[in-house]
Give the backbone structure.
Amino acid sequence: MRASDRTTAAVVLALFLAGFTLVPLTSDLRYLGASWGFLFVLGVASALLHRARLSAAAVLSVQVLIGALLSAALSLTLSWTGDPWYLHYLDLWQGGVEHMQTQGTPMDPNDGVILIFATAVAALLIITDLLATGLRRPAWTIAPLAALFLVPAIGLGTDTGVRSFLLVAIGYLAVLIADGLNTTGRWTRGLSRDSAETVGATPVVWRAATLIGVPALIGTLVLGSLLPTLSLSGLGIGNGAGGDGPLQLTDPSLDLRRNLNQPQDKEVIDYRTDAPGGLYLRLASLPQFNSSGWGNVQIRLNTGNQLPAVPGLSDTTGEQRNVTISVKDFASQYLPMPYAPRGFNAAGDWRYDANSLTVVNGANQASALRNLTYSVTSVDVTPSAAQLDKAVAGTPLDASITGAIPKDLPQDLITLTQDVVRGEDTPAGKAAAIQAYLRSGAFTYDVRPLPGNGYKALENFLLRDKRGYCEQFAASMAMMARIAGIPSRVSVGFLPGKQDGDTWRVSIREMHAWPELYFAGYGWVRFEPTPGSVTGSAPPWTVDTSNGPSTKPSEEPSVKPSEDEPSASAQATQAPVDPGTTSGDTATFPWGKTLAGSGVGLLVLLLLAAPATVRVRRRSARLAAGQLADDQVEAAWAEIRDTVLDYGGSWPSGSPHVISAEVAHRLDAEESAAMGQVATLVERSRYSRRFDDAAAAALVPQLTDEIRRGLAAPLSRRRRVLGLLVPRSLFRRGAREL
């Protein structure tokens, strides 16, 4: 097989494997078939172009043209209505981008997404081939291969997992092995041998791949099972399974977006309660706000089913109730519970965060919730409007997060908030004014808002089209509350549902988001800025009954009964507990972290040692006994050349004796004589009809060692260590001087 064919085949294999890393993003796998077709056509075309010995620029131009034609041809097979092809192509791209921005993962089928994914794989094939063959930098191909791995990891907050990394790693290793075999294949007898990278090194290539690649892949598997979850939530990085706390969890608002757009509604939760009224069932709270929007932060999980004191709650303002919840076909790593939970009884490994009182699966398994029945004891946080009006904005334990206002928050959002709360003196009055503004007729509930996220989404909703669903309403009120000086967070869960006798039934389209604001003495208090056509009446404690601003709460009819307002109670509870000192924690030696840290250190050492390992193995193969005389001489000459390069020198051009004279200037007399002897043997092996002086060739390894010591002697220790750890000879490509 030709060297270019081998490299092209390895590149195609690498992109074939890397394409599977996008599978977690979509429920429609048709993009795989399209991308395989692209890879086949581009692979064959690339191999033929390289055989034609065209320049790298010419090959790239033809590849881009073929890729563009393939992408355009694919678009014509995807719901084409007869419009001009270019308009249809642009519509598919625009629709695919909007679909990705508004869908959770796995995304519903969409023709635009198929086109985007398949075209992206083809584009990365072209880039990878350019690096591996055109620029002769196969080590750099990790960049385009890693791009496909990072898309689900960073772009949509999906669990990438160890398997995705292994697919990328195996593909990258294939490219490196192909390059090593190609280097070996360039070894020929005669003058061209100085352009060779190695001699007889095929076994070395495979041994190096085994010594470096296998431990690295095994290390990845070990670390994947030991490390805590590798996720940044909100619009963050995945949620791989991991060990004991601290954990970072996926953003439930992505599931919210997807579930509200389900083509068919279905019942997912039933519950019964021994107190009047339905309940908001909270999954999680998102306390962090920045340019990407609202998201989770790292939390520490505690074992046990009795939760600590409700943060900030000094008096019981509502009834304590017992709730029995039955989950149907719904999966989540969070346990749906009313706020504020005091205890729960659920089968499986469920743990709680003492600060947010969120309960999550300890093994990070969403499937553990499906078909689960469990009980919860909770207390209602329901102050009266008069009580809340006397309260000041409190300072929660995580005030540095829940009270933070980003420095880059657009000024127009700040100005709008100041206008809305103008004239209100109390925190409760400001919160009520914000809620009334958002529930007014100026805003329209729509599950398909303008595309965008973070600040752009807020500006679109508040300042432009004023259309959105609960996520936009909740995010906007939480942001405006912070500007008004009230700590806030966004909670995601379910509306109370519909009452059926003594059972409340909750459907998937009743997944919901709402803001929670922090008041001294009451802690986190729920508000409801989403219009009453969806949520019913606003909570009575959130309605300003005084002469407030001109914008009044919406008078829309209620479609769901509001919760009755229980009387306040003076019963005191414990003070809030610092989550770092919760009694559920057990002081044990952190074996998982220790082993994980050791594994990381070992993996880093393996990667750092990889170039030196390959270089040492190559030297051993070159200077090994038992080779033919001419091969022994040429191998030694190649070793001397690479030693000069490793130590920062340049290899002269010219005949062996000219090169010998140039290099000898850097050596002492004894090493200079050895260099002359090796140069003479090189010329004899190249120009004689038959060179079989085994006795002379047997001396070459010893002479080579002398020359290597002579080259290293005048160098500093730093230069010698650098030459060992980062040998330049391994990273140089292209023509070699004779």
Remarks:
- Residues 38 and 70 are 7 Å apart (CA to CA).
- DSSP finds 23 helices and 16 strands in the chain.
- The chain has a mean pLDDT of 79.
